[in-house]
TrEMBL record:
InterPro entries: Prepilin_IV_endopep_pep, Prepilin_peptidase/N-MTase. Residues 9-111 form the Prepilin type IV endopeptidase peptidase domain. One of its GO terms (cellular component) is plasma membrane. This is Peptidase A24A prepilin type IV. It comes from Syntrophaceticus schinkii.
Length: 159
C-alpha cells in the first residue's frame, strides 16, 4: 500500500512540476521538498532502515546525476531538486533510469526542434568541427583542450 502511495506521489509531483515548468519556467521548492520528505517517510515506514537508506541514496543520486549539467548551464536548479525528490521516492536506480530517459527524450525533442527550424544540418556541421578541434587537442589559445582530449587523461579521470 505504501509503495502505491509513493507511485501516486511521484505522478502528482511530476504533473505539477510539468505544468509549472511549462507555464512559468519554474519548479517550486514547495512541491519538491515535501515530495522528497514524503519519499523518505514512506520508504522508511514501508521497509524500515533499508527504506531510509534507499531514499537517502536515491535523493543524493538524483542530485549528483544532474549537478554537472546544472553547473554547465544545461538545467535549472529545480530540475536537480526534482530528480532528487524522484530518487527519494523511488530509489537511486530509478533516479538513474529517469535521468537517462530525460536525456534521451530531451535529445529527441532537440533534434525535432532543429528539424522544425531547418537548422539540423548546420548544427551537426558545427558539432563535427567542435569535436574535431577537441580531438586534435586544439583550443582557443593553442593547447587548452589537449589534456582533456588525450585518452590516457580521460581514462585516468573516469576511474
Amino acid at each position: 500500500m505504501l509503495a502505491v502511495l509513493a507511485d501516486l506521489a511521484i505522478l502528482i509531483v511530476i504533473l505539477i512540476c510539468l505544468i509549472t515548468d511549462l507555464r512559468e519556467r519554474k519548479i517550486y521548492n514547495k512541491v519538491v521538498f515535501p515530495a522528497a520528505a514524503a519519499g523518505i517517510i514512506l520508504n522508511t515506514a514501508h521497509q524500515g532502515l533499508p527504506g531510509l537508506r534507499t531514499s537517502i541514496t536515491g535523493l543524493l543520486a538524483g542530485v549528483l546525476i544532474f549537478i554537472v549539467p546544472f553547473a554547465l548551464g544545461g538545467l535549472g536548479a529545480g530540475d536537480v531538486k526534482l530528480l532528487g525528490a524522484v530518487g527519494a521516492l523511488k530509489g537511486p536506480l530509478f533516479a538513474l533510469y529517469t535521468a537517462l530517459a530525460t536525456a534521451l527524450i530531451g535529445g529527441v525533442i532537440a533534434i525535432l526542434v532543429l528539424l522544425w527550424q531547418s537548422r539540423l544540418l548546420s548544427t551537426l556541421k558545427r558539432l563535427g568541427v567542435a569535436l574535431g578541434v577537441l580531438g586534435r587537442g586544439e583550443g582557443v589559445r593553442g593547447h587548452c583542450c589537449s589534456l582533456i582530449a588525450r585518452p590516457t587523461v580521460l581514462s585516468y579521470l573516469m576511474v
